[in-house]
């Protein structure tokens, strides 16, 4: 193993026996290569070592949504829901999400990103009466998911938002991180006025996509509002 990873036998032995404080990212990279680890195994190795994998990620194509996940989305009759991909790209949505926010099908695919639309799309931004807290959460989430990597897709998005929005520029520079997965948000709609929705984010295994579901809080009139919007 030491030969394959191009490190000394003594160093590898002490590392394997837990007699070292930790390996550098370079050593971890060499060990991952020597062990022929897959992407998930490699990520787990770096996670165990408490280090960040500095290797550039391989370019990836457009993300897709499994038919079963799309069916689950469509079956959520009283709950607006979105499937979000890498860096909060909007991959799929149900009819009630269209009624609450806007017709995402009319948005060009490269612009169909929840973070981008939250800052740059007046219709999406205007739906939230408590916009700033949610926007800051999303900035923090993208900060976590980039994890030191700079794929062209995310670099372009961060660059565009940094140039066009002062709030994004400030929050991104703060290196704020967040992975909140639930809460309550206050929305407004020109046809129904103000209302509240609980939200939660569920992560799918394998594709690492997110299902964001919004529900009416108990003892509120939000369910009636959602049904009115659906009609």
Index terms:
231 residues, 2 domains, 45% helix, five-stranded antiparallel sheet, 12 helices, alpha+beta
Topology, please?
Blueprint (H helix, E strand, L loop, with lengths): L1 H4 L3 H8 L8 H10 L4 H11 L17 H9 L5 E4 L5 E4 L1 H6 L13 H7 L1 H4 L5 H16 L5 H13 L1 H8 L8 E8 L3 E11 L6 E6 L6 H9 L1
Antiparallel strand pairs: 1-2, 1-5, 3-4, 4-5
Helix pairs in contact: 3-4, 10-11
Number of helices: 12
What fraction of the residues are assigned to beta strands by DSSP?
5-15%
What's the assembly state of these chains? single chain
Shape: elongated
Q: How much helix, percentage-wise, in residues?
A: 40-55%
Structure summary, number of beta strands: 5
Which CATH architecture of the largest domain would you pick? Answer: 2-Layer Sandwich
Mean pLDDT: 88
The CATH first-level class of the largest domain comes to Alpha Beta
Biggest sheet details: 5 strands, antiparallel
Topology order in helix (H) and strand (E) letters: HHHHHEEHHHHHHEEEH
- The neighbouring-strand order within the major sheet is 2-1-5-4-3
Integer tally of domains: 2
GO molecular function, one term: DNA binding
Protein name: MmyB-like transcription regulator ligand binding domain-containing protein
Organism: Streptomyces malaysiensis
């Amino acid at each position: 193993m030491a030969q394959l990873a191009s490190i000394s036998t003594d160093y590898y032995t002490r590392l394997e026996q837990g007699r070292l404080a930790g390996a550098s990212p370079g050593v971890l990279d060499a060990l991952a290569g020597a062990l022929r680890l897959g992407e998930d195994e490699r990520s787990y190795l770096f996670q165990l070592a408490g280090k960040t994998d500095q290797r550039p990620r391989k370019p990836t194509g457009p993300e897709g949504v499994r038919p079963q996940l799309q069916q689950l989305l469509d079956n959520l009759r009283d709950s607006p829901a979105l499937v979000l991909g890498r860096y909060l790209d909007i991959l799929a949505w149900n009819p009630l999400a269209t009624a609450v926010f806007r017709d995402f099908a009319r948005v060009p695919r490269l612009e169909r990103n929840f973070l981008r639309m939250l800052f740059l799309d007046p219709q999406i931004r205007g739906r939230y009466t408590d916009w700033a807290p949610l926007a800051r959460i999303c900035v923090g989430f993208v900060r976590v998911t980039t994890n030191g990597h700079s794929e062209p897709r995310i670099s372009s998005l961060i660059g565009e938002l940094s140039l066009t929005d002062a709030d994004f520029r400030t929050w991104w520079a703060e290196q704020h991180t967040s992975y909140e997965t639930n809460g309550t948000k206050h929305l407004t709609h020109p046809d129904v006025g103000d209302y509240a929705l609980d939200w939660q984010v569920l992560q799918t295994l394998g594709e690492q996509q997110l299902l964001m579901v919004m529900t009416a809080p108990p003892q509120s009139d939000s369910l009636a509002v959602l049904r009115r919007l659906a009609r």
